[in-house]
Design a protein that fits this description.
Helix content: 55-70%
Number of strands: 2
Number of helices: 17
Shape: flat
Strand content: under 5%
């Protein structure tokens, strides 16, 4: 028996041939007849894109009316048609975002994240770009918490942790310098921390510190690195954890001197120092029993640097005993790189052949460099008025405006004799200082004769 479709197919092809012989159809009609599909990836010209936007905006308005009326199925179908027919128009970008929102509220989390990702890949210049990234971050946060909110209900979910990490990594890739990138990287580190994967958690927190400095997530990540290393050190005897914890906590204090975790950081740092000092003291005692002075001295020095008062006192006593029993061994230990030893009071330095004693007080004073005055140390400034100069006996202080004091009467030179005036008279004597001029006598009055 011949299948029916094999009989109908020749008739269809014949009709198409007759139609082509009569008229020349458009390319769209040819695609429809032969089942072809137009390539929508070819970007249309500006004029054609403007014409497409007119048709797409009309369809978008109709789709929004259906969406607002609660006909979600019809609205979603129209959104998808706009995206398919007019992918390069602004209305096509808006339709893609609205379609992703519908999937976000009604579909699965994977489908919602992929719908938002498709929008971001095809419409990176859309004003909805940041909103789509925010929607993706909310999806990832819901997946991380294992619950999804629908209305007033919290629906439990089961999401694989690796899938959630993939969500966060894609968010960072979409907007590596956006505001959700440090949050996403920090959430990745938290997932590893919850899974007790110490190395991966520390590495993820370190990426927050390196890639997003100055953020609140960066300071908290720095603290978390020190805290995780401290916990690991308490569970094992690996000294590298103590070293990593100290470095991270010191970095936090140096980078955030007024941070919220400052007091807690100082407490953990004190615990780390105490733990390392106790470990160093235990190792030093072991090497002391084995007779290895150099190794014991090195670890005793570590206990001195980081220990509590009790541990430091015990380490100092043991180090003095080592110095008294084997001074050469302790001296060899001091030659090691990076060693910083406390002076050993039990060692008899004065008995050494190289001892020359302290410098004499005068030599010690001369060997010191002059110090600059930094404050009020009794320095007397130059007086504004000149001091009183010494005078000879019997002399009188100079008067105002005079540079030299007056000559005493006993030291004045004798007056020279005044030569006689012509005609036998006397020359007028110049008045002395302080004397008054002589008043001449009144002229004689001559009476007239009668």
């Amino acid at each position: 028996m011949i299948p029916p479709h094999s009989i109908r197919m020749p008739a269809v092809l014949a009709c198409a041939a007759v139609f082509l012989s009569v008229t020349t159809p458009s390319f769209a009609l040819l695609d429809f007849i032969f089942g072809g599909k137009k390539d929508n990836k070819v970007v249309p010209q500006a004029s054609e894109r403007a014409q497409q936007e007119v048709a797409a905006s009309a369809m978008l308005a109709e789709a929004r009316m259906a969406h607002n009326a609660g006909r979600i199925g019809r609205a979603q179908g129209m959104y998808q048609s706009i995206v398919k027919q007019y992918p390069f128009t602004p209305s096509g970008a808006e339709a893609a975002y609205q379609n992703a929102l519908i999937i976000r509220h009604n579909g699965s989390m994977d489908d919602a994240f992929e719908a938002m990702q498709s929008f971001l890949n095809n419409h990176r210049d859309s004003p909805r770009f940041n909103e789509a990234v925010e929607q993706q971050f909310e999806i990832a946060e819901e997946a991380k918490g294992g619950k999804r909110q629908r209305g007033l209900l919290l629906i439990p979910m089961k999401v694989n942790s690796s899938e959630v990490i993939t969500f966060y990594e894609q968010i960072i890739k979409n907007a590596p310098y956006g505001k959700y990138a440090p949050l996403a990287q920090f959430s990745i580190a938290e997932i590893y921390q919850d899974q007790k994967e110490k190395q991966k958690a520390v590495a993820a927190y370190q990426r927050v510190v390196e890639n997003y400095p100055g953020t609140s997530q960066s300071s908290e990540a720095q603290f978390r690195i020190g805290s995780i290393s401290n916990i690991a050190a308490q569970r094992s005897e690996d000294a590298s954890n103590l070293l990593a914890a100290r470095d991270a906590l010191r970095t936090y204090i140096a980078s955030h001197p007024e941070g919220e975790r400052k007091q807690e950081t100082q407490q953990i740092l004190a615990q780390v120092n105490t733990a390392e000092a106790n470990q160093s003291l235990t190792v030093a005692k072991f090497y002391k029993r084995m007779g290895k002075t150099k190794a014991s001295a090195i670890y005793l020095n570590e206990a001195l640097k980081f220990g509590s008062p009790e541990v430091s006192a015990e380490a100092r006593t043991l180090l003095a005993e080592l110095a008294a029993a084997d001074p050469d061994g302790v001296a060899d230990a001091k030659k090691g790189p990076g060693q910083d030893y406390t002076a050993l009071t039990a060692q008899n330095l004065k008995a050494s052949d190289n001892y020359v004693g302290p410098l004499a007080p005068e030599l010690a004073r001369l060997s010191q460099k002059p110090k600059m005055r930094t404050g009020d140390d009794g320095f007397i400034p130059i007086p504004l008025q000149e001091p009183t100069l010494p005078l000879r006996p019997g002399a009188v202080a100079p008067g105002a405006g005079s540079l030299l004091p007056p000559v005493p009467e006993t030291e004045k030179p004798a007056l020279l004799p005044v030569p006689p005036a012509p005609g036998g008279g006397m020359l007028p004597v110049p008045p002395q200082p302080g004397s008054t001029l002589p008043v001449p006598p009144p002229p004689a009055v001559v009476k007239p004769t009668s």
